[in-house]
Every structure is written in C-alpha cells, then in structure tokens.
Amino acid sequence: MRRGLHCASRSRDWRGLNQGEIRTGVVGLGYFGSFHARQHAANSKARLVAVVDADHSRADSVAADHGAEPLFDHRDLIGRVDAVSITVPTSLHHAVAGDLLDAGIHVLIEKPIADSPEAARDLISRAAAAGVVLQVGHIERFSPVFGELSRAARDPRVVELTRIGPWKGRAVDVDVVLDLMIHDIDLVLALVGSPVLSVEAIGAAVRAPTNDFAHALLRFENGAVAHLHASRIADRQERTIRVVDPGRVLVADLAARTVSWTANGSDDRHEIAVPPSDNLALEIDSFLDAVARRHAPVVDGEAGLRALDVAERITRAIKGPSPALEYSMNGVSS
C-alpha cells in the first residue's frame, strides 16, 4: 500500500469544493460515529458530504448539524465521496468496508478491523487491489502521551498495561478483550516491535454475557514480556503503561497525561505533563493526510490484523485450561 495509492473518485464531480478538499462521509452514527462526523466537518482538508445510518431520524439529525446529506444505505455513498469513517458494529465491518473499498473509497474503520482475522485479511487484500488507504481506528496511537513514551522507551523488557473502569453497561455483547484490551494490544505491539511467541490469559463474565475482565501474559520473540489488565467492572478508572527499560522505569498515565521515569537505584523521579489534545481529531487528520498525500497510514490494515490476531489468541487462551497466572483482583468489583 505504500506505492500506487490513488484517489479513485477524484475525477468525479468536485463542484462546490475548495481545491484539494476531500469529499468524506461517515457510516454509523451512534455515540462514537457522531464524533467522527463532527471531526470530519471541522477538518479543513475535508468536506463532509454525507452521513449514513439505518435510523433515519439519527441520520437526518446529524446531517442537519453539519450541512451534510442524510443517507440510509452505505452503498449510496459510492460516487459521492472519496473517503469515509466506518463506525458500525464490528460484525458489519467486513460487509460495509468491503463494498466501499471495492468502489475505490479510502476507509478509516474503527477498531477492531473486523470480527475475524480471515475477514481482516480480505479487507487488506481488497484495499491493496483498489489502491486505497485502509486505516484502523486504534486511537491511542495518536495520543501525545503515548508518543512521548514511545520516543523515550529504548528497549522495553517488561511492559505492564492497565485499562480498567467502572461498569457502564455499554458494548456488553463484545468481549472486554475486543472492547478495551485491544487498544493496549496494539500499543504494546508497537512498543516492543517483535512477534508474540506465546499467550496465557484468564478472564470471566461477571455482569455481561461476555468476559468483563481479562488478564493476559504475552511473551515476545525478542525476550520481552507484557502483562495486560483490562476490566469494565473496576472500582476506579485507570489507563497506564509501565515500561521497564535497561537502567530505568517509565510510566505513562494516559488519563492524567503524564510521563515519568526513574533510573534504577535512584529515588529521583522525573515527570513531564503533556498538553491536552483531541486524539480523534489527530487520528482523522492523519487519515486525511494519508489520503491527500497518497502514503500509508500510521495504523494500516496489517497493524489492525496483528492486534486482532493477538486478541483472538487471548480469547482462546481464556476459554482453555487455566494458566498458572497470578492475577490480583484489586480494582475489580462485582
């Protein structure tokens, strides 16, 4: 995808657009999709042309907010837009994205890329065949806090990632591994930069029909180890990454927006505060930049597939024989 990207629909009607403006749309206007629509409308690289939702009143309302056309079938976008955000349920990712990729439309698809590795591979193949951008919405990659941590980390040997929060009753049909932990799977794969050698995991359903908390141990081919903790039934909110590097320990608090480090054998702790940012705005701007400049996105389909593959391995490990993992129930409540 690094070569041969083209804007298949650029030759169509551009009347009413500023030079270089990208015609965009959003498919799926639920809680997060409405934020995508807002960011497309606010970005100077784009013109939000249309929004799509099966709920006609929702499509009409969001379209009216941003001066866009309301549509009720994603296929009606073909010929109208150059690029889209897809924020429909994961089970629909393959069908919706496949139709639009085949039509030569650039796609930003929310995480996870698809509901199976096979479906993800098919989307990657179809994007390559069409010569268009396929970006996966792993939004934490665009966090300036993670950016500071990734630049500071030299050779991560042990990484501990915690993503927990109180019960909200949302996305209960989705396992916590695909709902929350997949963010940190993507981040640790980017940090360590080595294939995963083995996976052990435990988890359980407490309030939902799917797993509400999970703990995974990943061992990498380069000798690094990662512990991932995810819970949606915790007694507090926490999103932290702790990295043991040769000679020092680094801690990124994604919620508090700080990165700190302490040298081994020293009590001196250094900390920097990272200014506030809108990570979704940064993600969408990066996507539009990849479309405009015809280069590969920061989080491409292959990155999305790697994260999904590890998530599948964790889910299978939870269903299998109980591993010899020690897991503290601290922060987990029923």
From TrEMBL:
Organism of derivation: Kaistia soli DSM 19436
Origin superkingdom: Bacteria
Record-level Gene Ontology MF annotations: nucleotide binding
Transmembrane segments: none
Residues in Gfo/Idh/MocA-like oxidoreductase N-terminal domain copies: 22-138
InterPro entries cross-referenced by the UniProt entry: Gfo/Idh/MocA-like_OxRdtase_N, Gfo/Idh/MocA_Oxidoreductases, GFO_IDH_MocA-like_dom, NAD(P)-bd_dom_sf
Ranges of residues in domain GFO/IDH/MocA-like oxidoreductase: 167-243
Pfam families per record: GFO_IDH_MocA, GFO_IDH_MocA_C3
Protein name: Predicted dehydrogenase
